[in-house]
Amino acid sequence: MTSSSFQQMAKAARRWGGSGGRAGQALARCALVLSVAVFAAGVSAQPKAGAVSHLQGMATAQQPNGSYRFLARGDSVLEGDVISTTERGFAVVALDDGTKFTMRPSSTFAIDRFKQEAGEESAVMRLLRGGVRMVTGLVSKRNPAGFEFKVKTATLGIRGTSFDARICGDDCRQEGVAPKASSAAVAGVASTGPVVARLVRANGAITATLPGQNPRNLSVGAALYQGDSLRTGADGIAVIGFRDRTAASVNPNTVIRIDSYVYDQPQVNDNFGVSLLKGGLRLFTGLIGKKEPRAFSVRTLTATVGIRGTGIDISCEGPCVDPSLGETSAASSTVDPRQGDGLFLMTWEGSSYFMVGPLDVALDQVGFIGNDGLGRILRTKPDFLPLAPAPRPDQVAIDWDNLFASVAPTGADGIYVFVRDGHVFLASAGSRVDLGVGEAGFVGDDGRAMRLVPPPGFLTSDPYPVPELFSQSDRPVFQMFGITLGQPGQEICRL
User: Fold this and answer.
1) DSSP 245-287
2) How far apart are CA 385 and CA 381, in angstroms?
């Protein structure tokens, strides 16, 4: 290291610590000690992973060979870097694939691997101390299984998302456990409402889309919300479990929409309303259908289907397909059910009916409405019924006890995760919880993964900036978030 390098580091220390005073002297001492370490170890060449887009206070990067370097705004971060912030500073880092993360004070974060080349997309990152707020980029989107986020006691599965992860001790308990009234807005969480269902089995391409938002790819454990439109591809099969233990199997080339879902809410009547816009759906009703059958319905363009505590198959093709999908259909000009066009309803447990007529469809009967809008009972069952390849939902093993199970936060030591967008699963020691938007999870010393309801306040009300919403043009960050670096004479660097 040259003398000019030492001079540059001293100037940086004075810039970070203000002009003169004991705070600046403390920073200068930190710079001197760290520069000696860099000089002794040398600097290694590592592939660039990204750059520091904002820095408040001080941050360092330790390279695989043990050497240190100070980081400033605009500096590169490298594959293999272990980045640390001081107790009164934070950093915003932007990786080259669009991934961004905010490192909280007193945090240490390792970028063990970062590859964004086509066909080689992968990343391995570790949170060693403190916390990060992260939004993932192209690596996670292109190869979700290749994006690994690890802590000592757990692994996070990331499915194109924005989330917070924090290793907590006394610091979190001091900040409080109870969420604040406006926590969702502060945390940058999309307004999705509560999770109403989860994907329990998935094959092939499956997406869900909320009004006004982009489609999101679904995997096992993914959350579904009121207003979601779920679509399966040509090879897609989905099995969904709802909070009231209603189970639904969705055929390939099918679109359904969760219009309304209310269950077990104080002073609000239970309700289950799903629209079948196209394709095939198999349903086995849960507690809503058993307690209040009139509150359970499946809507199609042709008719609405009522259910009396039952299992049914519904097929919707041709004139039944909703035009809002923007898809043309070769609808038959006849009412011949052998053409396969129209609305078909088969009951395999209980009873059901078309709410036009009305027309009852008893056990093992098949009801049909063609392009004439008239309902009738078919004498022979069409070859495509029962619907295949989707399994009968009552024969799919679903772990209902854990699908939506949760515990209240206690502030215990461990790793906490909060999801602002997308889907995260938290896995450790043979246990796993899936987290959707607005949900939080925890792994403590016993290694058991748990879902927390409500999310703890130190996550939902984190004052440090969400990386995807942070802008350099905003007013000074410490005015924005009410954060104080400390008074003159307070040391803000610890080695």
Assistant:
1) S-EEEE-SS-EEEEEEEE-S-TTS--EEEEEEEEEEEEEE--H
2) 7
Q: Six-digit token pair at 416?
A: 């906490």
Burial class (CB in 10 A: 0-12, 13-18, 19+), 211: exposed
What value does the mean pLDDT take over residues 412-440?
A: 93
Cα gap 16→363, rounded to integer Å: 76
344: its two tokens:
């078909």
3-class SS at 31?
Answer: helix
List the structure tokens of 269: 């009547």
Round to whole Å and give the CA distance between 363 and 229.
30
Helix crossing, 21-41 with 3-17: angle to 10°? 150
Instruction: Give the chain's domains with CATH numbers.
Output: 226-395 (2.60.120.1440)
How far is the C-alpha of 282 from the C-alpha of 310, rounded, in Å? 11
What's residue 81's pLDDT? Answer: 98
Q: What's the pLDDT band for 328 if we cut at 50, 70, 90? A: low
- Measured in whole angstroms, the distance separating CA 120 from the mean position of its chain's CA atoms is 23
| Bridge pairing between strands 237-242 and 195-203 | antiparallel
CA 134/CA 188 separation, integer angstroms: 12
Distance CA 279, CA 314 (A): 8
CA distance 89 to 59: 8
Least confident of 18-22, 277-281, 340-344: 18-22
Contact 82, 61 (CB under 8 A): yes
- Would you state the pLDDT for residue 476? 47
Quote helix, strand, coil % in the chain, to nearest 5. Answer: 20, 40, 45
Query: Which of the two residues, 438 and 186, has the higher pLDDT score?
Result: 438
pTM, whole model, 2 decimals?
0.82
Joined tokens for residue 235: 């090879």
pLDDT tens, residue by residue, 122-161? 999 999 999 999 999 999 999 999 999 999 999 999 988 8
Residue 240: C-alpha distances to residues 160, 206, 280 (Å):
21, 12, 14
Euclidean distance between CA atoms 415 and 166, whole angstroms:
6
Collapsed DSSP state (helix, strand, coil) of residue 380 = coil
Q: What does the alpha-carbon distance between residue 103 and residue 126 come to, in Å, rounded to a whole number?
A: 12
**Amino acid in the structure at residue 127:** L
Neighbours of 371 (CB within 10 A): 17
How is residue 379 written in tokens? 């004498």
Place of tokens 């949170």: 127
pLDDT value, residue 190: 62
